[in-house]
Amino acid sequence: METVTVLIVTYNRSDCLIKLLKSLLIQSYKLERIVIFDNNSTDKTTCKLQKNGYIKSSIVEKNKLYINKKDNVETIYLKSSKNTGGSGGFYSGMKMANSFGSDYIWCMDDDVLPDEGCLNEMLSSFDKNVGIVIPNRSDNYFSDNAIVDFNLKNPFLFRLGMQKRIISSSDIGDNSIEVVDMPFEGPLIKSDIINKVGYPNKDFFILFDDTEYAYRCRKYGLIIFNTRAHLHRQIRPVVTFPKKKRMNWKDYYFYRNQFFFEKKYGENFAVRNVRNFFLVIDLSVRAIALRKWSNLRIIYLAYLNGVAGNLGDNFKGKK
């Protein structure tokens, strides 16, 4: 029987985390262990894990492993001494989870909720050519999409929405489809792939790390979107209108990492050196038209740091 280790990266969502853990313990395919990487939560995460029997120790020190068993599934908890962002969390957490030698690592944020048969259904999609399977996140208030193409050749497709060819999960006729991108919301990854590719880029801090990791993984195996493997979001997605809003620190990291990604992985000179400049002009014109002057600073800093490869947690301002 093939073994599966779950990796959960958590930060200040203790209620969601407990619900997720309960859903994992009733999976129809038995897990070997659950690894919880806590990004230095400041809420009651540790206390709730102790109260619900996931941590046996009454005192928890940072950067120390705490191993227990819950319903015959090994649970391993580590609280980081600092918040390294989602990217740093998945880097350190995946490295830790992979060290136990399971056949698969099932990665997820703390606010997802897989159906009882989710894991079993994803495992059915693997063959010798498949390296990763991702679940269908469609729900009553959210329709998931399969990203089947990501254009890194045309320099005039400077907006992300222009670059990706998307198919709604409801329009996929078969039970599964090959994709080129994935979120860190439930991908099931062969350990063989991780051993070849390595780990997510921790210096992204947040956002775009999953896209960059998917790009690297595709060299060693297919990524399959399984429409019958259902995983829900516990937190309802918030609809925003980016053309009208004032940019914040999250926008900085998103665009900085996008600029870096295209500079590094663009398939020709124009994409690597021109397409990012087109996006800067587009974002700047919209900022000026809407009189969002503070957006200009974020746009230019994201561009300069992204193309120069100055990554890490380097946003100077309120978060």
Please summarize what this structure is.
The chain has 319 residues and is α/β, with parallel strands linked by helices.
Characterization of the model:
With 319 residues, the protein is of the alpha/beta class. The protein has two domains: 4-233, Spore Coat Polysaccharide Biosynthesis Protein SpsA, Chain A (Alpha-Beta Complex), CATH 3.90.550; 249-308. The chain contains ten helices and twelve strands. The chain has helices at 14-25, 45-51, 85-98, 118-123, 160-163, 191-197, 209-217, 249-265, 269-289, 293-308, and strands at 4-10, 33-38, 66-70, 73-79, 104-109, 112-114, 130-136, 145-150, 164-168, 176-179, 188-190, 222-233. Strands 1, 2, 3, 4, 5, 6, 7, 10, 11 and 12 form a ten-stranded mixed β-sheet that branches. It has a two-stranded antiparallel ribbon with strand order 8-9. Helix 1 links the parallel strand 1 and strand 2. Helix 1 runs parallel beside helix 2. The protein is globular. The mean pLDDT is 95.
